[in-house]
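FW: tagging you since you asked about this chain on Friday. Here's the raw sequence from the shared folder, copied in full. Didn't touch anything.
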Amino acid sequence: MNRFLDTKVSCFNIELKKHFFDFLEIQPLNTYSKVNPLSGAAMYKILLDFTYGYDYELIIQVLTDCVLDIHNLDYKDANPFWILPLQKILENETNKFHSLDELSKRMDLHPVYMTKCFKSKKGYTIREYQLKTKLSRGAVMLTRDKTTISSVAFELGFYDNAHFTRSFKKYFGISPHQFRNQLMVN
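HL: got it, structure written out here
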């Protein structure tokens, strides 16, 4: 916090890194912005949280509100703060299929809200995104010479080889075996 000795004015500056804007899926403005004075109480809350131990989720929410206000955007134009962590779970934990109940508990969200919001922001249901992520990873794994289709299916949490093969063929239009053979030819 900056204090100006010749006046009774204080200044609280927050610098946000690019990944915060990536998180919201908006472009940062190349300018300094003053926050609407109506959100002064919220900024004071952030200052207190930084000073005396902070509530991470509240800080993220207040900063998100301020950034959207500065960009003249509404919440419908940006991702909620929980979408990126949810995507990371689905991308990094591909060894099993996550249930909506499990994910909603981990995100501390209602499953219906989480499902509707994710679909509206990403264009996929959570289940579709999870399957797409697994199948894309499976395609990469199939490029390894010694990896069997069965081991890929098992490593990605599919119930059995047939379940993986059906899903792969539906998504890519060819079976995993045909996919691998085409790679060998090219």
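FW: The chain has a mean pLDDT of 79.
HL: agreed, and Residues 104 and 113 are 9 Å apart (CA to CA).
FW: great, closing this out.
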